[in-house]
């Protein structure tokens, strides 16, 4: 990798320029490289450059005496350590980042003048951070939660941040309620319980009093809140934004990210298990995929709505609790995001990156969505505390790829050495530099929206239909997805101690779907409130008549795009498959399966009763990747049981192997076994749930494969894994979870 020198204009030359990490080259990686340090092969020194002779002992009065205050080397080291931590993000504290590139397929100049959406030849460097919302930095990746999906585009016109989530709507309509929402979901203030969980009284108290959250809460209680991987979830800009073309014409737009691997989830029982076995599951998955070259890919999707259509729909485009159904406005896939490089340093990049949906470029603009407008304030404000002052934009991961010239100066940790006498405008002493930029030459001009209004604390009546899209979402789900939603509400409300809160929530659910509410009530052992008015949920605080929910029968019965059952299921790339083995395993059939799965891009691991080398039936030596002690079914997408008489006898008697299969069955995963491994399957609890004539069949039942291992068998296994899960297996309560 050549060491491309950064442009001197970036003001970074001569910075800590030791070794440059190998990385794909673009303007951003080159800029970052200039700030990268690598101590390999180097000598140790202090922060002032003094060579260190002894890093093991502090300076003492005698070898058993007190340490001397004089020891500036000790003081420097301890002082730095004492101040290593910064406040975690008040929300989205737990996250993982990756670098990548974005490229538009065809010019979108007819709707936007944004350069990165105009030139199909341009590769725009990006940095992405995925996150959970409620948990602390050290919490589990698998919490039931919304996921953040924040993308920064480093463009020559400045940074554009698309700070979205993996759900297309939000809990509240106005930013003034955001602190309340977050206070309610975070651990309760008296005892700081529970961590990274919404299943507690304060959250549901708030939600049950906030009917506008009905739509979002359906998403949060669906499997969307339990992604299989950051690489397998959709992203949404949530708000309606504006695109502006070179003629100044505006169109409304909703931004989407569509993962090429499809949108997939894990089961709730599985999520809880993963949280114990590998709380870094999503972080590790993203890291490993990128390290192995299986680069995560997403297509950018746009729903473009002509400005004339602003009032065409039965919902308000400015209401962030509503989505625009894809049946009404199709999503056009306009470009591709590829994540191709892991960060060099978590703190420097993933932790210090400061996203802000106010970071826009000419060609993109805001709307008056009141949630969006409040966000425009919050993101810069929060960095002042989090990153310690107004110079956070100079941190390498936050710098734009073009040099910054303006009259902002000084402050804590200022890096740039601004030359010259003038730091004001207009000036005559410095040629009036830096100069403003004319609109025709790329200067940013806000969209000239006509506003004629009174100042009022009000909300338009068009925001008060809280239930029709919640119902649309529920009606669009497959049966298993609906069952999961019922289970999720029953679990969460079951953890709520205050019965009145549970009941009030049942009132909300009844307004979305009576059947849903009845099933949840049954699980909780409660009766549905007999009198349900659209407003009972808000009456507790005596909301004035003007603010009451209205019941609207949505015109769309169902939207296929809302169900994950309809996602693409044509690849097993980067899926993890466990092969259960032991001494005496049949090496040939293992090779057939392993080779086929790896050729399709899957990751295969051999799991054995113990680590180290094993001897196959044909006396070949092979190595186990993990033992049953460190591996677990919940960390894999599918499982195959090897043949070979001795191996089969060992696995049948190995409780961990049988447990592995039982769990894979319970979580509806594909299971395959060599025809001679039948006795291992017979040791599981699910063998008596298989059809009576299963021994004759190759496909024992949906998602269970047995038989002679040949290429046809391997093909079938691949197809099963691509299906992801056989959720039908759960019915009716076949699977304990
Ligand atoms: Fe926010 C972080 C997404 C509403 C205030 N938000 C944050 C992150 C994401 C979102 C992905 C993490 C960025 C990162 O990885 O560093 N937020 C959203 C979405 C919202 C939303 C999709 C609704 C559509 N947020 C929202 C509101 C407010 C905030 C209404 C305040 C009025 N959000 C913040 C924040 C955070 C943040 C306090 C915490 C850390 C940070 O900004 O940098 O400013």
UniProtKB/TrEMBL annotation:
Report biased composition (Basic and acidic residues) as residue ranges: 15-28
Q: Where is this cross-link: 3'-histidyl-3-tyrosine (His-Tyr)?
A: 356-379
Q: Where is this region: Disordered?
A: 1-63
| GO MF annotation list | catalase activity; heme binding; metal ion binding
UniProt keyword Iron, yes or no: yes
Q: Which domain of life is it from?
A: Bacteria
Quote the catalytic activity from the record: 2 H2O2 = O2 + 2 H2O
List the GO biological process terms: hydrogen peroxide catabolic process; response to oxidative stress
Domain called Catalase core: residue spans: 45-433
Q: Which cofactor does it need?
A: heme
Query: What's its top-level EC category?
Result: oxidoreductase
Q: Which residues form the active site?
A: 92, 165
Gene Ontology CC annotation, any one: cytosol
Q: What is its EC number?
A: 1.11.1.6
Question: Residue ranges under compositional bias (Polar residues)?
Answer: 44-59
Q: Which SMART domains match?
A: Catalase
**Binding residue positions for heme:** 89, 129, 178, 375, 379, 386
| InterPro entries listed in its UniProt record | Catalase, Catalase_AS, Catalase_clade2, Catalase_clade2_helical, Catalase_core, Catalase_haem_BS, Catalase_immune_responsive, Catalase_large_C
Alphabetically ordered keywords of this record: Heme, Hydrogen peroxide, Iron, Metal-binding, Oxidoreductase, Peroxidase
Is Magnesium one of the keywords UniProt gives this record? no
Q: Which family does it belong to?
A: Belongs to the catalase family. HPII subfamily.
Give the protein's biological function: Decomposes hydrogen peroxide into water and oxygen; serves to protect cells from the toxic effects of hydrogen peroxide.
Its protein name is: Catalase
């Amino acid at each position: 990798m050549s060491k491309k020198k950064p442009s001197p204009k970036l003001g970074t030359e001569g910075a800590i320029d030791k070794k440059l990490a190998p990385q794909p080259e673009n303007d951003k990686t080159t800029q970052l490289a200039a700030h990268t340090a690598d101590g390999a092969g180097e000598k140790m020194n202090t922060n002032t450059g003094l060579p260190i002779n002894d890093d093991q002992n502090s300076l003492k009065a005698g070898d058993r005496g007190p340490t001397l205050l004089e020891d500036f080397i000790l003081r420097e080291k301890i002082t730095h350590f004492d101040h290593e931590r910064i406040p975690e993000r008040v929300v989205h504290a737990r996250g993982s980042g990756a670098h990548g590139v974005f490229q538009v397929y065809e010019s979108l100049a007819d709707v936007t003048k944004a350069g990165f959406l105009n030139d199909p030849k341009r590769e725009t460097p990006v940095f992405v951070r995925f996150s959970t919302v409620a948990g602390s930095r050290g919490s589990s990746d698998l919490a039931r939660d919304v996921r953040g999906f924040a993308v920064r585009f480093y463009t020559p016109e400045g940074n554009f941040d698309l700070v979205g989530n993996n759900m297309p709507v939000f809990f509240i309509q106005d930013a003034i309620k955001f602190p309340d929402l977050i206070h309610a979901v975070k651990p309760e203030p008296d005892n700081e319980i529970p961590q990274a969980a919404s299943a507690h009284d304060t959250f549901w108290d708030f939600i049950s009093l906030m009917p506008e959250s009905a739509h979002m809460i359906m998403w949060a209680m669906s499997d969307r809140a339990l992604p299989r991987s950051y690489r397998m979830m959709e992203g949404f800009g949530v708000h309606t934004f504006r695109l502006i073309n070179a003629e100044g014409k505006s169109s409304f737009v909703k931004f989407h990210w569509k993962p090429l691997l499809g949108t997939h989830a894990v089961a709730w029982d599985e999520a809880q298990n993963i949280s114990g076995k590998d709380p870094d599951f999503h972080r590790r998955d993203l890291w490993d995929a990128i390290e192995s070259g299986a680069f995560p890919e997403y297509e950018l999707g746009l729903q473009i709505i002509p400005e004339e259509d602003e009032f065409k729909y039965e919902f308000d485009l400015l209401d962030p609790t509503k989505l625009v159904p894809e049946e009404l406005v199709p999503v056009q896939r306009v470009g591709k995001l590829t994540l191709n490089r892991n960060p060099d340093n978590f703190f420097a990049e993933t932790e210090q990156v400061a996203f802000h949906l106010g970071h826009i470029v000419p060609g993109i603009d805001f709307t008056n969505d009141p949630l969006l407008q409040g966000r425009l304030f919050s993101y810069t404000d929060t960095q002042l505390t989090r990153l310690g002052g107004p110079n956070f934009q100079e941190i390498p991961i936050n710098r734009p790829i073009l040099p910054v010239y303006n009259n902002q100066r000084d402050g804590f940790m200022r890096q740039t050495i601004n030359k010259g006498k003038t730091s004001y405008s207009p000036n005559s002493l410095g040629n009036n530099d830096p100069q403003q930029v004319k609109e025709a030459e790329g200067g940013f001009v806000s969209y000239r929206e006509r506003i004629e209004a009174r100042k009022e604390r009000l909300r338009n009546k068009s925001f008060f239909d809280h239930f029709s899209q919640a119902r649309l979402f529920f009606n669009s789900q497959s049966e298993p997805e609906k069952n999961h939603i019922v289970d999720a509400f029953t679990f969460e409300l079951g953890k709520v101690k205050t019965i009145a809160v549970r009941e009030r929530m049942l009132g909300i659910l009844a307004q979305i779907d009576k059947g849903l509410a009845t099933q949840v009530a049954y699980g909780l052992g409660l009766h549905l409130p007999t009198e349900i008015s659209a407003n009972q949920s808000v009456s507790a605080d005596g909301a004035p008549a003007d603010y009451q929910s209205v019941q609207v029968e949505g015109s769309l019965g169902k939207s296929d795009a809302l169900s994950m059952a309809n996602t693409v299921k044509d690849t097993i790339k980067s899926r993890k498959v466990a092969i259960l083995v032991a001494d005496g395993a049949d090496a040939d059939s293992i090779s057939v399966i392993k080779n086929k799965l790896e050729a399709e891009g899957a990751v295969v691991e051999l799991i054995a009763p113990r680590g180290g080398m094993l001897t196959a039936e044909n006396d070949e030596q092979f190595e186990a990747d993990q033992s049953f002690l460190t591996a677990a079914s919940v960390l894999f997408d599918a499982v195959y049981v090897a043949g070979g008489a001795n191996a089969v006898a060992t696995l049948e008697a190995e409780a961990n192997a049988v447990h592995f299969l039982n769990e894979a069955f319970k979580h509806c995963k594909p299971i395959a076994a060599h025809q001679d491994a039948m006795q291992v399957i017979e040791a599981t609890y699910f063998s008596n749930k298989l059809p009576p004539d299963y021994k004759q069949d190759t496909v024992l039942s949906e998602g269970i494969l047995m038989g002679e291992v040949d290429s046809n068998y391997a093909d079938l296994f691949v197809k099963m894994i691509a299906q992801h899960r056989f959720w039908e297996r759960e019915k009716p309560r076949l699977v304990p979870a």
